[in-house]
User: What shape does this take?
Amino acid sequence: EREVVAYDLSPMLYRWDGMESLASEASRDGKRVKVHLKVDTGMGRLGVPWKEAPQFMERLRQLPSLVVEGVASHLATADEDPEYAREQLQRLLWVVREVSKGQSKPLLHIANSAAVFTLPEAHLDLVRPGIALYGAHPSASFKALHPLPLEPVMTWKSKIADLKEHPPSSSISYGRTFVTSVPSRIAAVPVGYADGYPRCLSNKAQVLVRGRRAPVVGRVTMDWIMVDVTSIPDAEVGDEVILLGGGEGGISAEELSSWAETIPYEILCSAGMRSKRLYKG
Assistant: This one.
């Protein structure tokens, strides 16, 4: 609460004890803090249950050091089931009609990335894009239905640490899940599941080396992946390896997530703290 008041932030609140605590902190500083009320319209996670929100708002307005600037909710299925998303939207609109009787109407927001692009009726006063800010779609299936001109902004890189020539019938990595069928050139790349590169990408994923795709072969280990660069004869130790990103023709979050049988959100959140961050722009 101290930082919220000191920096004039507008928090999203959903518990009464949190609101009372913030109100007390604001009162001590002689300030009025703008807040947004989080309403649960069907996500089942955080928020005041939508049918209880009008009574909750009435109590909230009795705290003179807090000013209700907005009312918000979170969509559960905007990328999968737009009809349920519309039902959630109607619940939020009902709440706002109830709490606005004789009062000024607060700012409304419920749209996430999927709703920004597919549910214009959910745009209301504000929108809250998340994964779209990374230039990714909510899922590979969503991208197939709604291909958007998004520009990926995140790249995850490593380098070739070693190269070996392997004859046919050579097993690669733990468990011998990959065995060469022809003379092969295999690169060792220092990234693994301890860095957030999923083990389930073993024998599935691809990376970019010198602008060309190369398959990840054998099991992803704690600290290493093995990459078959046989088709890239000019690959050398020290070459950059792009795990995610790479521009046109690169490795997208949607593609990685489909190989890993997960969602792009998880891929984008997975890069561990051992990976050096470089922020541009």
User: Anything to note?
Assistant: The chain has two domains: 2-129, 156-270.
